[in-house]
Model the fold of this input.
Amino acid sequence: MSEIVDKDLINSHDKFFKSLFSRKEAVSEFVAKILPSPVADKLDTDTLVLDSNEYIDKKLKTHFSDVVYRCAYHTDKEEAVPIKISLLFEHKSYPESHPHLQLLRYLLNIWETQKKQKEAFTPVIPIIFYHGMPVWHKKPLDDYFSTSDEYLQQFMPRFDYLLVDTKQYEDAIFKELNTLELQMGMLIMKNIFQTETMLQKFAYIFSEIEALLATEKGRHYFESIATYLYYNTNLTTETLVEKMNTVSAQAKDTFVSTAMRLEKRGEERGIEKEKNIVALSMLREGIADSLIKKCTQITTEQLSRLKRQLTTDS
Done:
């Protein structure tokens, strides 16, 4: 029997990544201090503008989610040319064996969009953000092919990507970041899969929590942190509340209110899930729509969605 999946749980890594890198000030410092200097030195971060277009198609959704910016790049001839910076979050949390194949599709999606919108084609710098535990061994596209014949090289695609593997950075590098959202976000994402390490580093990660909570923007971001920790650690709510209380009473209170809201939402979705399961069963039995809605209290829109799901599953 088909089940309705808890999308908050599945997409929580993506949401946290996007909540962080949709902030221009965070991306600006990320570019300046985390990316290799040959790239960072040529990017004019004052010109960063968030791109609202969608470039991730259905096939790519199983691999990446993205945050894209337009930016000016200063060439060796001191010309400012427009480019795109694509921050691609690898959300399966284990290495891709052939990332260039997904990236090639992704780049084509960008250029196809520019073609449809009658825009000039722009270079794209793909940056894969990875925070999984297995080591990501980056290799060039040429290694995919068994031949190194010089003549054949002209018929093969040639492009690369930047890899930001959080495990390859010392905590101190992230701790030195001035943007508190970026500082805490990077440290949390680096350590999220290591429960004991997270506990040991809790005070270190949140040492500047009071400064973050001093602004409305910071308080809003901390709710994203609380949600991310709630869904993605093996720690109980009680343990997280206790740890938060050791760093800040305000942080504890915010975490408690966020956890209560998430638990209530989970209960409500549990009820909705049961309703959907019953409705799906009734649909399979050919029971009239009016009776299904009366028995389960679901809306016409919900019933239509379940019918589409049933068609897809079959």
